[in-house]
Amino acid sequence: MSGEAPLLPARAEPLTLVDPASDVPRRSASSGTRARFWSLGSTGLKIVGLAIFAFLLFGPLANLALWSVAERWYTPFKLPVSYGMRYWEVVFRPTGDAMASLATSISIACLTVLVALTVSVPAGYALARLRLPWRTALMILFLLPQAFPSVAIYINVARVFYSLGLTGTITGVVLVHAAHGLVYSVWIAAAAFAAIDRDLELAARNIGASPLRTFFTVTLPLAAPGIMASAIFVFLESLDEFTGTFFVGVPQVTTLPLLLYNASMGGNYQIASITALILLVPSVLFMIVIERFLKADVLSKVGQ
Amino acid sequence: MARPSFFGLLLIAPAWAMIGGLFLYPLGFSLIAAFTEPGGGLSLMHFQKAYELYSTDILFTIFIVIVSTLLTGLFAIVIAGILTLSETPWLVTALRNLYRWPLFIPFIVAAQCMRTFLAKNGLMNNSFVALGLMEPLQTTSLLDWRGIIITFVWKQVPFVTLMLAGAMASVDRATIEAGRNLGASRLRVLIELVLPQVAQTLLVGLVLSFVTMLSVLSVPMMVAGSQPTMLTVDMAFRINSYGDYATANALGVISYVIAGTVAWIYLRHNIKREVQA
């Protein structure tokens, strides 16, 4: 910085006083300085901008992490008064509510994946390979539960389920989650089947494999990574689902999001934050591995 | 054209039945409940009641969702624009690795984060005070409509940016280079060359965000407790406190109308585009 300072006055020098011979090099020198000055300024600006962006992005998450290890934290103090893992012990105590909720959440998510895949693998295959009337309309139909204000739907699902004795049961919650996740499983399964080279299936048929055998030994294994990706989507969607469980699952089914909600509304920020962190783990893991499962050739066919 | 495959219909039937039973049937149920009076005839009385009780909340909801959508679009354009047009490699790398983080974070976790972060003595105000940007007495809680908007934007920007950056990456680089060579600034290239080519993707992302934000229950419940609040909270309240399905469903139909208006704008834009093409 200090090395550049003496050059600066050159810029202020009136051009008319400079003799033409020395004008060219001197002007380029001054514009070089100016460029360096600008690039330094813009680099500084970029760093500051990036820092603000990072603060706004990670600040809320940092606050969550702080609350999870804060044993005491009250108003005049900017940081927790005392730290400790006491609440982690409370959460991870085998007999605690949180462990029970975690078990409920994971079993619901697994069952949801099972239900969603059972109906969407055949549907995806049909949409990708067979001739269907109003194919586009059928595809959009699966999007509707996602692209619709869902609260109004769930209160009526809860009402219907009540008359069937399904409110407050795992079955009821699984059905709601599966319908909600169906758009991912059907669309991605259809894209995965559409991305498979048809010649491979024809080759298997040519050497005498039955259609069913071709499907299970050639088509399905080739589509497996895409179907796996859709399973992860459905699993996460179910794990994070709040609204449907709130209306259909109460009071018997308490999943992690409901536990988080109850703890937070009850003012127990430590339990709420730890629950939130547990919910974050699969989400972040998924963000990191998604590209491994969803290949570009499948991704380009999603929704078509 | 061959005739439709019966086998295909058979394969898709279970999935279709699921949507029918768990979405279309309850949807019909909600429409019927909203438009029938206790005696059984058609009436708009539930809408009248919903309007009398919740007209402020209807406007509040529309305001929040529109402002959040516009801000989401603005931030997504800025980030995707930098990712596409910036000539500073380290900035692009850093931004690319940063912006995606909230993408898969559940709304309820985002709500809990913001509930602590934006509070009067939350980490945000504390950081500002520690940096000397603010006096401790000046700090205010942002846990009202501003908190809801901040949470929505925080959560939805990565999603729209991901779609938009993908679309921008497939824009022909030659047009961008040509614009730059002719002396257009990067801002001008972004607004006049790149954006028109990716407008379709941006619109899809924003419409999906709009409807998502309209349906979220956890954020308005956890981030802003008091009145006025969003329609989703009102619906839950009508059900849980009064078992009043009629008014709740009338509010539900109002939220369908809001979502439907946006979908209609999107479709109209699409048709206009196809006519032009």
Task: Give a written overview of the molecule.
- Chain A: InterPro entries: MetI-like, MetI-like_sf.
- Chain A: Residues 102-290 form the ABC transmembrane type-1 domain.
- Chain A: The chain crosses the membrane at residues 47-70, 102-128, 140-162, 174-195, 215-236, 242-261, 268-290.
- The complex is a heterodimer of chains A (304) and B (277).
- In chain A, 74% of the residues lie in helices and 2% in strands.
- Chain A is mostly helical.
- Chain B is mainly alpha-helical and 277 residues long.
- Chain B has one domain (47-276): Orthogonal Bundle (MetI-like fold).
- At the A-B interface, helix 2, helix 4, helix 5, helix 6 and helix 7 of A face helix 1, helix 3, helix 4, helix 5 and helix 8 of B.
Uncertain spans of chain B: none
Superfamily at the CATH H level of chain B? Answer: MetI-like
Give the beta-strand count of chain B.
0
Distance between the termini of chain B: 27 Å
Number of strands of chain A: 2
What helical percentage do the residues of chain A reach? Answer: over 70%
Q: How would you spell out the order of helices and strands of chain B?
A: HHHHHHHHHHH
Range of helix content of chain B: over 70%
The proportion of strand residues of chain A reads under 5%
The CATH topology annotation of the largest domain in chain A reads as MetI-like fold
Q: Tell me the β content of chain B.
A: under 5%
State Rg of chain A: 29 Å
Q: Structural class from helices and strands of chain A?
A: mainly alpha
For the record, what CATH class of chain B applies?
A: Mainly Alpha
The end-to-end distance of chain A, rounded to whole angstroms, is 56 Å
CATH architecture of the largest domain in chain A: Orthogonal Bundle
Largest interface: A-B, 81 and 81 residues
Main beta sheet of chain A: 2 strands, antiparallel
SS field, number of helical segments of chain A: 13
Number of separate domains of chain B: 1
